[in-house]
Write a structure and sequence with these properties.
The chain has 431 residues and is an alpha/beta fold. Helix 4 packs parallel to helix 7 and helix 5 (221-236) runs parallel beside helix 6. The chain is globular and about 60 Å long. A seven-stranded parallel beta sheet has the order 8-9-7-11-13-15-16, sandwiched between helices. Strands 3-4-2-5-10 form a five-stranded antiparallel beta sheet. Strands 1-6-18-17 form a four-stranded antiparallel beta sheet. The chain is built from ten helices and 18 strands.
Length: 431
């Protein structure tokens, strides 16, 4: 292996749930045309419409008027007026920076390919050798922005469609520190360009949709709902066909108090957005979370257990052995987890950081990072889904979900891995 210089840092983000200042999610009684006629009352109530999502009957608005919620609740057609919440959606993940050295040309031999155990574990290298590279597939990455100028992913970024729903922050990060969305995008679609790494689907296209702060990993429910709705709108307007939404993000809630503090209403609104995306032909793929808990319990992981998408658990090796073990941090749960993907682990110092997943990761510049989490497993699954679309064409979310499940390799209990660990070669070899 080539020499790698490391600067190690720990990214530990604890769960938080606080009111987003002066922002509200207003849910209508219905969905579709005419469902948000109440939006016309927002200005009169002392507010400003941030996003009107008529297809799902939801309006996100801001107001400094202390009586805004009461006034809007009385408007015709309104079901709920809920103060939005800021949540830390990226938790308990580890990353280490690396400096690239060496140069090798070609397919399955990018300079850092030797460190990409994750690509080989799901046989994405063999799928690539067969010519399956994900061309024609589009993945919207809802995350903390993306370094769209990074040399290893810039060829596959659809900058014209990139957008941000984080107030005061653009899609492009502003520091060279680890950027979560850049790393996720690189796992999916780092290009074959004789530089750095190779993505699972190195010819798939990425649309960065910023819904989390690049500095804190936090974001509002309203922002995530708006991000999902944006991806849905691209399909419905025929601007471009989004096949997959990747959400390497999640937070836990207590089922026994799911309505506490307004979270229940916000989760219901998120369900509306995800189901609308599914109806528009988009498969939502979400991280199962990093708390090491059984989700068949009173613990509820959102958005993994929202809408009609799929949830991904993580595998991770110990000292580059036993690659198909459940990662130490990964949430699990029979009937919750659909499939597993390689997320890396950091339980053994002898294997650190090479047991983690390597991908582009700097907010600016061309840096690379090792990182571990269900956030890294999720884009591996999204990448395999992109390979399926590249091979067989656009298909319904149910069809795509079925192909992922049918081609997965059973590596243990369904409680931990669902239908199994995804396999790119099998997924692109099936009739």
């Amino acid at each position: 292996m080539r020499h790698v210089a490391l600067a190690v840092g720990l990214l530990l983000c604890s769960f938080s749930l606080i009111a987003a200042p002066h922002q509200y999610v207003i849910t209508g009684n219905g969905q579709g045309p005419g469902s948000t006629t109440f939006a016309s009352a927002v200005t009169a109530a002392g507010g400003t419409v941030v996003r009107n999502m008529e297809r799902i009957g939801i309006v996100v608005a801001t107001s400094d008027d202390p009586n805004f919620a009461t006034t809007m609740a009385a408007a015709g057609g309104v079901h709920d007026v809920t103060p939005d919440m800021e949540v830390n959606w990226i938790g308990h993940e580890q990353n280490a920076q690396t400096a690239m050295e060496g140069h090798v040309d070609g397919l399955n031999s990018e300079p850092f390919f030797g460190y990409q155990w994750n690509i080989r574990q799901i046989h994405a290298d063999q799928a690539a050798a067969n010519g399956n590279l994900g061309a024609g597939a589009v993945v919207a990455v809802l995350d903390a922005g993306c370094n769209m100028a990074h040399v290893d992913i810039a060829p596959n970024i659809l900058t014209a469609f990139a957008t941000s729903f984080v107030p005061g922050e653009g899609v492009q990060p502003t520091t060279a520190a680890f950027n979560h969305g850049t790393h996720v995008s690189g796992i999916i679609a780092a290009a074959i360009n004789n530089t750095g790494t190779q993505g699972v689907a190195p010819k798939a296209k990425i649309i960065p949709v910023k819904v989390l702060s690049e500095f804190t990993g936090s974001g509002s429910f309203g922002g995530i709902i708006a991000g999902i709705d944006y991806a849905t709108s691209l399909n419905l307007s025929n601007a471009i066909h989004v096949d997959i939404i990747n959400m390497s993000l999640g937070a836990t809630f207590d089922r026994n108090n799911k309505g506490g503090g307004g979270a229940g209403s916000l989760i219901s609104a998120l369900n509306r957005a995800m189901n609308a995306a599914s109806s528009a032909g988009i498969l939502c793929i979400s991280a199962a979370g990093n708390d090491g808990v059984d989700l068949n319990s009173r613990i509820w992981e959102i958005p993994a257990q929202s809408g009609n998408g799929i949830a991904v658990s993580a595998t991770g090796p110990i000292d580059l052995a036993n690659f198909d073990r459940l990662a130490s941090y990964s949430n699990y749960g029979r009937s919750v987890v659909n499939v597993a993907g390689p997320g890396g682990d950091a339980v053994d110092l002898a294997g650190y950081p090479y047991d983690l997943v390597l991908a582009p990761g700097s907010g600016i510049g061309n840096g690379y990072f090792f990182a571990a989490g269900t956030s890294m497993a999720t884009p591996a699954v999204a990448g395999v889904a992109a390979l399926i679309v590249g091979k067989y064409g656009h298909m319904s979310p149910d069809q795509l979900k079925a192909r992922l499940a049918a081609s997965a390799v059973q590596i243990g209990s369904e409680q931990f891995f669902g239908r199994g660990r995804v396999d790119a070669l099998a997924a692109t070899s099936a009739p």
